[in-house]
Amino acid sequence: MTNLLPLFNTVLSKKTHALIYMLGYWSQKNMFKIYGVGSFVRDLILGRENRAVNLLVEGSAVDFARSLQQMLPASRLQCNEKYGTAKLSLPDEMVFDMVTARKELFAFTDTLSAQQLTLKNNLYNKNFSINTMACALNPLNFGHLYDYFGGRKDLEKGVIRVLYKLSFVDDPLRILQAVRLEQRLGFKIEEETAALLHKARARRLLKKISKEKFYNEIRLIFWEPSPLKVLIRLQELHLFEKLFPRLVLNSVTKARLQQLEQVLSQLQGKTWGTRLNRFVLFLSALFSEMSRHDIQYLSHYMRLKRNERLKINFIHQNMRPLLAQLQLPHLGPSHLYQLLKGMPTEGLVLMMASAPGPRVDERILFFQEHLCRKKPVLKMADLLEKGLKPGPLLNRLFQDLQEAVLENKIKSRKEELAFINILLEKNNCLSE
Fold this sequence. Notes:
The protein is of the alpha+beta class and 432 residues long. Helices cover 54% and strands 9% of the residues. The protein has a 7-stranded mixed β-sheet. The chain has a two-stranded parallel ribbon with strand order 8-9. Helix 13 (251-266) packs across helix 18 (345-354), helix 14 crosses helix 16 and helix 17 crosses helix 21 (392-406). The longest helix is centred in the C-terminal third of the chain and has 21 residues, at 306-326. The protein is globular. It starts with a helix and ends in a 6-residue tail after the last helix. The mean pLDDT is 89.
């Protein structure tokens, strides 16, 4: 198949198909030429809809994106004029990553040949053959597939292959990208590519990458469908210890990560389960058996952000005591709320994965889905209007009010006001 139009019709949703066709029409009208490239084309052939669409633009990607935003006013645009890139994000989480095609000058060639050579040379910069395919999006040849490096054949064979022998030397981060892509797609790193990867590892090429770039790439591991598979494969390739010094991926840790992935799959569709920092979550799981000193060392070594370090340390120090209390036979709603209100969501999910029985899971779900939403109608400002001054008494009154709401003792603003008045009378401080 040299034209992917049938796949556009069957793989993509009608809305996505229409939007991409509109992009092609707009590019034609404004004298641009655009191609879908990389993971978008790869996933399309695999029968998967990818809502992060990579575009190669002949002309200026920045100018094209700006013109496009006029037609999509609800979109958010980020541009980098120096590098000729643009990112257009739509409200429905559709993203268009655009890059300007590097122009090539070829002597003694006609216009069509020059255009194809330019496209080919731009695609040669991709990391693996299965990411080098391009698909025309302009209306005149919409859907036409350009495959100069055997990407389609490698897709069919299920292999990850670099384009040239110095690929890992030019960009050592491709070592990690190869492993992530291999595990995500269920492919295998091709034999010669594997040999080049082992040579790159032996030469310690990853050491040449700045720590920031290095660990920004590592963060992506934890957004994979199964980070555990990636980590195990890194261990097999003798790379794990280079990424996470002092950390051991033993059977206990693997079992914890497997349980964590199962919990995450159960939480799909729950709003609070989608707002997690997966990097913090999986690192907390990996760090569970480590000493506080080693955690601090790795946190600094991995260039963790301050808020990430604080979360991980809090989870490490408080998870086990909280797990013990959550397994007590009797625990009222207000007590449960007080126990869990300070724990980051990542810690709550990790506790669900670490608990020996269903009781902890049930209580955490009850806390997240019911108690967190149960708040007094009255605000602190309402109590201040009654003449109270900020201080211990005001804080205690509001806490008592909150506990009464959590315990379902009061259910309306009127009942809350009556409750506060009773407390004020008991404390002899009813405003005059």
